[in-house]
Each structure stands twice: as structure tokens, then as C-alpha cells.
Write a structure and sequence with these properties.
alpha/beta; Ubiquitin-like (UB roll); Rossmann fold; 2 domains; nine-stranded mixed sheet; three-stranded mixed sheet; about 35% helix
Length: about 250
């Protein structure tokens, strides 16, 4: 009987010591004694809404220094628009620090996502999309391939005075792109780089006549291209000819 009483006494003693600690760490008691009064934001916020950031962190900070759930707060901040990476820390006696790294958009990806400069896809929702971003698209597992061909295509067409406005890889593995003058280029599934290289070299000769504008080029032929043209209104063609003569 004495042994049982001793066990109960030790259990009660441990509970009396442990319960206040558990209560403190969970914010059940004394959160008002160690409140987190200062939010310190590290990192330049160009696109993340600071008011929204504060509103997101506040519910976690109200639980007090010892009870603030840093991992939950960090996950909540990471879900905000434009946030690529977030880190939440606390500093005695009353500071909660949030370090934010923003996405830097490289291109649109389809209709509802953006692609960051680090190759990460993030949703468009809640974001004011910057103007003049190129539009890329394809399976999420082929992001690196799409970006690589986009960069190579830009280099190929730079000498023609054109840029690549859009590039897409469909589910069947077929490539297509749109140039800055609106011309659509169908590349196909095989030998994309050699085909684009040949086409880019010949493009200045193909478009030398100001009376016609290239609308579509199909490169899926062994020995040539299939081209579709649009006629230029006479006044526009004449103006272009005069302009070239005065240059």
C-alpha cells in the first residue's frame, strides 16, 4: 500500500511541475505576460501585401512567445500570393521575425500559372501579372525543356529582329511557337532545334517582300516549309518601302 501511495505521490508531483509548462507552451495561460509585440519583416516586399502578411501572422503571434507555432505560421505565410519561400522565427523578448523571398516571374505558364526565374510554377490567383511576359506551356514535368528551347529560339531569331512571344509543348510532344510579329511556327515533335535553325536563317529572305506578311510556317517537312501569307494593304506596304529607303 505504501508503494502505491508513493507512486501516486510522485505522479502528482510530476503533473504539478509538467502541467504549468505544457499550459505555457500551448498558450493556455500567461500568454498576455509574454506577448509578441513586434513583427520584423526581412526581405524587400515588392509584390507581397504587407498588410496581408501581418494579418496572416497575427493569430499565431497572439498565443505568446513560448506558444507561437512557428511551423504553422511559416506554412501560412508561404501560401500567400507571390511568396516563394518563407521563414518565421522569434526573438526574445517580444519579436516575431518573418523572412520572405518573393517569386520573380519569368513567364506565364498556360492560363492559370506563372513560372518563376527559379523554374517554379505558382498560381496566378491573387496576383497582378506583369505586362509583356512571354507565354510558355507544356507538361509540368517538362518545364526545363520548354525553358531551354525558348531561350535557344530567342537567340536564333534575334538576328531577324524578332522575339519569341510564346512557346508551347503539347501532350503529344509537338512544339509550336509564336513570334513577336504574330507569325505562328509549327515545329513538330522531332529535330526541333535544327528545324528552327534552318528557318531562322532563311526567314529574312522569305520576308523580304513588303507586300506580304508571314502568318504561319509549318516546319514539319524534310526539305522545306509550308508558308501561309497575308496581304499587306497597299498604303502600308508603300509606307514600309519608303521607310526602308530612307534608313
Amino acid at each position: 500500500m505504501n508503494a502505491v501511495l508513493r507512486i501516486l505521490a510522485w505522479t502528482l508531483a510530476v503533473a504539478l511541475v509538467a502541467l504549468p509548462i505544457v499550459a505555457l507552451l500551448n498558450g493556455w495561460v500567461a500568454s498576455e505576460r509574454w506577448p509578441l509585440r513586434t513583427l520584423r519583416v526581412q526581405g524587400a516586399l515588392r509584390n507581397v501585401d504587407e498588410q496581408q502578411l501581418r494579418a496572416t501572422v497575427l493569430p499565431f503571434a497572439q498565443r505568446g512567445f513560448f506558444a507561437v507555432p512557428l511551423e504553422q505560421a511559416q506554412e501560412a505565410v508561404a501560401r500567400l500570393p507571390w511568396v516563394e519561400r518563407a521563414e518565421v522565427r522569434k526573438h526574445w523578448p517580444d519579436v516575431i521575425e518573418v523572412r520572405v523571398v518573393e517569386h520573380r516571374p519569368f513567364a506565364r505558364w498556360g492560363n492559370d500559372q506563372l513560372l518563376s526565374e527559379h523554374g517554379r510554377l505558382f498560381p496566378v490567383k491573387g496576383i497582378r501579372v506583369p505586362a509583356k511576359l512571354p507565354t510558355l506551356g507544356g507538361p509540368a514535368t517538362r518545364v526545363q525543356d520548354v525553358v531551354a528551347l525558348y531561350n535557344e529560339s530567342r537567340a536564333l531569331f534575334a538576328s531577324t529582329g524578332r522575339d519569341v512571344r510564346a512557346l508551347h509543348l503539347d501532350a503529344r510532344g509537338s512544339w509550336s511557337l509564336v513570334l513577336s510579329d504574330g507569325a505562328e511556327v509549327i515545329v513538330g515533335r522531332s529535330d526541333a532545334r535544327p528545324r528552327l535553325g534552318r528557318f531562322a536563317r532563311l526567314l529574312p529572305q522569305l520576308t523580304a517582300q513588303p507586300q506580304r506578311v508571314l502568318r504561319r510556317a509549318d516546319l514539319r517537312y524534310t526539305n522545306g516549309f509550308a508558308l501561309q501569307w497575308a496581304d499587306v494593304p497597299p498604303q502600308t506596304a508603300a509606307a514600309g518601302t519608303t521607310s526602308q529607303g530612307n534608313t
